[in-house]
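TL;DR need structure tokens for one chain.
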Amino acid sequence: MKIYLTIVFLISAQFLFAQKIEVKDLVLYSQKTIKYKKGNGKLIVDLWNKSNDTLFYKSMSCSWQNFYFFDNPNIHVLPANCDKNIPVILVLPPSEKHRVELNIKIDKKFTQDFKVGLNIRQSKTNTFLDNESLIEKNEVLWSSTIYLR
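>> reply
TL;DR here they are.
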């Protein structure tokens, strides 16, 4: 019984004292250029975990696009149609990438280059058992410059 309790304690401690992945260990890649037609376009974005730890981060099942935004107010992420929107924790193992395709709307007279950002809200575990599982600090990860063509 003593060994069993020790094992349970060690597993629990792993989640309680999990390392927080630094933003410098994450990379947000995007296409270098984007073509758009009648103000609408698609932008492919990859989140890469360069750290040695697994990244657990908060998202939503349908409105995950709300965690992405741009450094210019003339570009907007278009929402997806969905019937049920619930909180989820996404898991990104070390050296792995997570790819999303953003449907975007670009204002007609906008011709400048821009960057896409991702609001990372890390979690200590892969569950939503309580609010304490979330690390409160939001961090923004920015892509390199994206060119309109």
